[in-house]
Amino acid sequence: MRIVILNLVTIFALSACVNKNTPTPNGYITPTKPAIVAQDTLTYLALGDSYTIGEDVPHDQNFPNLLAQQGYSIKILAPTIIARTGWTTDELIEAINQSEVKNKTYDMVTLLIGVNDQYRGMSQDNYRGKFQQLLHTAIKFAGGNHSHVFVLSIPDYGVTPYANGRGDTISPQIDQFNAINAAISTENHVNYIDITGISRLAANDLTLLASDGLHPSPKMYQMWVDKLKVDVAKVFLKQ
């Protein structure tokens, strides 16, 4: 793939975003020289459940499609999505095994899974093993490049109207499942994006929820993407 030098306007914008005095969601980035796009087109696979497919929102407003629409100097192709409402880790594994993409590779892969394991009362030990299996699969999809895999934490639906006051039970359990996926992500040297805090803002802002009172609205998805795209830029835009 050809190397593309960013135009001056893009370089200025990127430099402003990574000024050493400017905090990002993941800390501070110190620029060393103008950014160069490593490759000009990225293929993208998104693995997950309802939070990935975008239950109760237009398909082009789920987070994978919003990420692809961000206007990077890198073009992210329309994502291939393997996700369905209600899927647990077991069901995602089965769906991948039955899919036509199981032997393909992609430039970047996102993984967000686990809320239905918690919701159905499945054990954390089962989740630990199945999440690790899925993460290894995601790394394989990324051609073995760990830095091209992006794990998103599980949102906290305990703050939503759907939870009907059960947040004191749900939220701690979500934290426990996220502790598992965060530890495994760290062990495997992939990118980990904590969006659980963003999801909890819905406790005081219902515009962050879709009309079902449970799933994210496009507004919340954009907040996830604003955080996710920082890590995507760090990986695919060389300093």
Automatic annotation (TrEMBL):
Pfam annotation, one family: Lipase_GDSL_2
Ranges where the SGNH hydrolase-type esterase domain occurs: 46-222
PROSITE patterns tied to this protein: PROKAR_LIPOPROTEIN (PS51257)
GO molecular function, one term: hydrolase activity, acting on ester bonds
Protein name: Lysophospholipase L1-like esterase
Organism (species): Mucilaginibacter oryzae
